[in-house]
Amino acid sequence: MATRLVKRPKIDPRNASADPLTRLREGVRKPVMPVSFAQALNVLLVDQKRVNRSRLQRLREAWEMAVDQVDGISKEAAKKAEISSVNKTGAVLVNVSNPGLAHELGVVYREPLLSKLRELLHGKDAVSDLTVRVKRRAYRARK
């Protein structure tokens, strides 16, 4: 497709005035107010949150499938584990309620879970690391 070197006039030449100065003024386009940096950044962050949210959902579904497929894991307890975040490099943070379960998932079954997650998410998301932590409990006032 050929690129146009001359822009089409905004006003139809048949309806233009006879005065050349008026014709020039009519053809000038009004400037559009520029978008502020904060507005552009807000749009970008909203889109990024949407992408990250869907990535987290895919990862949570893959976690449930990986827990089912790896032998020896306490499946009910491991499914209650909460995948809280995944960063750009693919490091996954999993929170559990039990220190024993954290050791089991984070040390004993870490490599089988990582390989199964990589296999399930191949081509969609990259998983580079798996960190399992115990959830921080809210401070309880003593009676």
Task: Outline the fold blueprint.
Elements (H helix, E strand, L loop, with lengths): L19 H8 L9 H33 L5 H5 L2 E5 L4 E6 L2 H10 L1 H11 L8 E6 L9
Parallel strand pairs: 2-3
Antiparallel strand pairs: 1-2
Helix pairs in contact: 2-5
Structure description:
A hairpin with a 4-residue loop joins strand 1 and strand 2 (91-96). The chain has five helices and three strands; from the N terminus they run αααββααβ. It has a three-stranded mixed beta sheet with strand order 1-2-3. Helix 2 (37-69) packs across helix 5 (110-120). It is of the alpha+beta class and 143 residues long. It is rod-shaped and about 90 Å long. It has a domain at 40-134: 2-Layer Sandwich (GMP Synthetase, Chain A, domain 3). Residues 138-143 have low confidence and may be disordered. 47% of the residues lie in helices and 12% in strands. The termini are far apart.
